[in-house]
Design goal:
It is built from 5 helices and 6 strands, in the order βαβαβαβαββα. By secondary structure, the chain is an alpha/beta fold. It has a 6-stranded mixed β-sheet with strand order 3-2-4-1-5-6.
């Protein structure tokens, strides 16, 4: 299975409610996320499963991915919110017969999950920029293999 860990796009500094969970993507965040999604589509990325943090900025990022055509539907996956575990992710992925899965979430969690999928234990966490993407090839009987870790700057160059 190909797994794409996607950090949400650039968000507003503060929400209208004052709650971090309610921070929306900024205009720049929407634009850059759309550009990244369009580039992924040109790279023939297709997501059979799209799991998304319940936080607003992650849901909005996922909506852009669907609008561009990378995925058909969004599934809210609470463990992608801060505090979720990679074990919960592995369990969820084991129940889906997908060739590829996208995970839209937050730092430092995504970076730690990437390390756990690749090396078996999290270290300090891979740095994933906003709207950045990590592609990992997962196998049932071997550690994950890092295919690429791309920043928006590299994807859009």
């Amino acid at each position: 299975m190909e797994v794409y860990l996607i950090r949400h796009g650039i968000a507003e500094i503060q929400s209208t409610t004052g709650q971090d969970d309610d921070r929306a993507l900024s205009e720049e965040g929407r634009k850059k996320t759309r550009q990244v999604a369009e580039r992924l589509l040109k790279l023939d990325v297709q997501l059979d499963l799209l799991l998304v943090s319940p936080l607003l900025r992650a849901r909005q990022t996922a909506q852009v991915l669907v609008q561009v055509g990378l995925a058909k539907t969004i599934e809210i996956f609470t463990p992608l919110a801060p505090g979720g575990t990679c074990a919960e992710l592995r369990e969820r992925l084991s129940r889906h017969d997908a060739a590829s899965a996208g995970l839209v979430g937050h730092q430092p969690g995504l970076g730690l999950w990437a390390e756990e999928l690749i090396w078996g234990i999290p270290q300090t966490g891979l740095e994933i920029k906003k709207a950045g993407v990590v592609r990992i090839e997962l196998s049932q009987h071997a550690p994950g293999r890092l295919i690429w870790l791309l920043t928006p700057k590299v994807l859009l160059a």
